């Protein structure tokens, strides 16, 4: 595996990556020399942004982690589906060449979706279409010998299954992965860009969480429950980072309360990234998650801890409290720290400029330590060292804290022992997990001509089409109709024309004088029968096996039930409504 392969995976193109060896580069001298080289290179190649305000006014965005899409092999579906249409539906498979090509083209297109909303819509269209394909062709008791091959997005290892649920789960994973790529490519220097990134990462979390809750026994590591747990947490952490960036974009005002809020927002980001790091380093995830990911998450956790302490320090060192602010400021300060700092009371700290300076300096010490730890961890991974923007953010933030520390440092502070407590994490906007809304993407059943799914599905068995020639007598044709799409023979008059011709109660009319009637309503079939130009009519009928094996009493009971309810018409609108729940309870079958 090459180093370029490692780098490409972090960029979200699905390439296989490996990590750097964290134990080969830990000596202090090497780290110091490396820091020096990094600083020289950055100063030479990039314009350094100086100062806290400049850094956040220009909104330098730390890179996000997108997921690579799962790749798949081509699948030969035409011949197996043609054979099934002939055997199960008793229709010539060649009549459906157009539909078979349309489905094959749709599957081919979804393999390379564009990195935008159109790509999401394409994946959802294919996912929704699989609901119909599953109902039409894939029996839980019999397989067609079709294997779906997909490659693990994290390891590149191929997996295959005959269950269509594996295909559906893989497409759902790609919906989530594509959302991560859309979120990562947003311009987060603008309010609109940040909002779009938040929306995309929340939808990514929703798709991955939906996959975790509704599919099981996944054959690939990236779709296992531990992996999906980790990925959902990663997306939530990236949402939280965007929320912090939105606070920064609004501008840091010279107000004590705003600075404390910023400190707590940063602490919240550090907290969620710390949770992601813990998840990534637990087995079995730690065995296959890219080292560049793990390192990036750990760097962010330390970096945002440092930022949190920096804003707390600014609040104490630069702000003053007016006579009317005491109550509000004390309340905010009580909620700032995980534990109360040692020393004077909060009132004394707020009123005494020297005590405020000492506590602020203690926070700056912690900020500098955390910044240096983030830079040390960052230096361990060759991939991250190649990210100029990430290096710039770490270096500038570190220099900003050092500069502030030098401004407030005094010679007589040498023996100070004040220890700054950790900042209590708090956010003004909690991330959401947005479950995919598949019903927004309307689809038409490609194999619509086979008939309504209520009858013409893989779960139902019926007789071959029988042609019935009816002669109209003075009493008519001798049968009654009920229902829509397809119309049902509700009753047959004994010894009538229909009875003698072989028509039976429970038959479905699929054609009248060779005109297809599978989707026709009751009134339309009646009109066709009434307007026949001769005294005879030819109708095509089928009989469900359910009726063949029931006695007359059971058949009448079933017919009564059907007459009292509306038979599912199979309309596209109704089908689309059912799509969103079609995957629930589906297991990824292990074969």
Question: How would you portray this structure in words?
Answer:
With 591 residues, this protein is α+β, with helices and mostly antiparallel strands. It has three domains: 220 residues, no CATH class; 184 residues, Serine Threonine Protein Phosphatase 5, Tetratricopeptide repeat (Alpha Horseshoe), CATH 1.25.40.280; 116 residues, PDZ domain (Pdz3 Domain), CATH 2.30.42.10. The chain has 21 helices and eight strands. Strands 3, 4, 5, 6, 7 and 8 form a six-stranded antiparallel sheet that branches. It has a two-stranded antiparallel ribbon with strand order 1-2. A hairpin with a 4-residue loop joins strand 4 and strand 5. Helix 6 runs antiparallel to helix 7, helix 7 runs antiparallel to helix 8 and helix 8 packs antiparallel against helix 9. The longest helix is centred in the middle third of the chain and has 28 residues. The protein starts with a helix and ends in a 12-residue tail after the last helix.
Could you write a compact summary of the structure shown?
This protein has 591 residues and is of the alpha+beta class. The protein has helices at residues 3-10, 28-45, 52-57, 78-88, 97-110, 117-137, 164-184, 191-214, 225-249, 256-280, 291-318, 326-334, 346-351, 353-379, 382-385, 388-408, 497-501, 522-530, 545-548, 552-564, 572-579; strands at 148-151, 158-161, 466-471, 479-482, 487-492, 508-512, 515-516, 536-542.
């Amino acid at each position: 595996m090459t180093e370029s392969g490692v780098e490409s995976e972090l960029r979200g193109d699905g390439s296989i990556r490996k990590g750097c060896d964290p134990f080969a580069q830990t000596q202090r001298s090497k780290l110091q020399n490396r820091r020096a080289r990094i600083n020289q290179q950055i100063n030479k190649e990039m314009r350094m942004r100086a100062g806290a305000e400049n850094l956040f006014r220009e909104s330098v965005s730390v890179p996000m982690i997108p997921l690579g899409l799962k790749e798949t092999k081509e699948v030969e579906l035409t011949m197996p589906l043609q054979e099934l249409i002939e055997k199960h539906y008793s229709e010539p498979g060649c009549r459906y060449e157009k539909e078979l090509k349309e489905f094959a083209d749709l599957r081919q297109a979804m393999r390379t979706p564009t990195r935008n909303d159109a790509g999401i819509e394409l994946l959802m269209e294919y996912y929704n279409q699989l609901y119909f394909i599953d109902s039409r062709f894939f029996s839980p008791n019999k397989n067609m010998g079709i294997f779906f091959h997909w490659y693990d997005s994290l390891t590149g290892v191929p997996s295959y299954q005959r269950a269509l649920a594996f295909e559906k789960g893989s497409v759902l994973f790609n919906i989530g992965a594509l959302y991560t790529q859309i979120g990562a490519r947003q311009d987060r220097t603008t309010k609109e860009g940040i909002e779009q990134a938040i929306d995309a990462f929340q939808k990514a979390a929703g798709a991955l969480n939906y996959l975790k809750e509704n599919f099981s026994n996944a054959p690939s590591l990236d779709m296992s429950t531990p992996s999906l747990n980790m990925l959902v947490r990663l997306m939530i952490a990236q949402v939280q980072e965007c929320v912090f960036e939105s606070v920064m974009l609004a501008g840091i005002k010279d107000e004590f309360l705003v600075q404390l809020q910023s400190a707590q927002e940063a602490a919240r980001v550090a907290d969620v990234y710390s949770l992601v790091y813990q998840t990534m380093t637990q087995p079995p995830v730690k065995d296959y998650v890219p080292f560049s990911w793990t390192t990036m998450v750990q760097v962010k956790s330390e970096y945002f801890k440092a930022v949190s302490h920096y804003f707390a320090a600014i609040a104490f060192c630069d702000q003053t409290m007016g006579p009317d602010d005491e109550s509000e400021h004390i309340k905010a300060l009580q909620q700032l720290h995980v534990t109360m700092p040692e020393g004077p009371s909060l009132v004394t700290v707020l009123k005494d400029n020297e005590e405020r300076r000492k506590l602020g300096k203690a926070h700056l010490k912690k900020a500098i330590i955390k910044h240096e730890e983030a830079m040390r961890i960052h230096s361990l991974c060759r991939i991250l060292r190649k990210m100029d923007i990430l290096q710039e953010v770490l270096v500038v933030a570190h220099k900003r804290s050092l500069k502030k520390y030098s401004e407030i440092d005094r010679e007589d502070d040498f023996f100070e022992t004040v220890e700054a407590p950790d900042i209590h994490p708090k956010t003004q906007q909690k991330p959401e997990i947005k479950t995919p809304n598949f019903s927004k993407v309307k689809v038409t059943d490609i194999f619509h001509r086979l008939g309504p799914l209520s009858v013409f599905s893989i779960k139902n068995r019926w007789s071959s089409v029988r042609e019935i020639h009816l002669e109209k007598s003075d009493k008519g044709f001798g049968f009654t109709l009920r229902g829509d799409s397809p119309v049902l023979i509700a009753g047959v008059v004994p010894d009538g024309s229909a009875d003698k011709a072989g028509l039976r109660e429970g038959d479905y009319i699929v054609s009248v004088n060779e005109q297809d009637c599978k989707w026709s309503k009751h009134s339309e079939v009646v009109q066709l029968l009434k307007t026949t130009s001769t005294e005879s009519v030819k109708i095509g009928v089928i009989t469900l096996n359910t009726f063949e094996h029931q006695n007359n009493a059971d058949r009448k009971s079933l017919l009564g039930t059907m007459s009292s309810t509306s038979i599912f018409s199979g309309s596209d609108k109704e089908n689309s409504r059912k799509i969103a729940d079609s995957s629930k309870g589906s297991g990824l079958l292990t074969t």
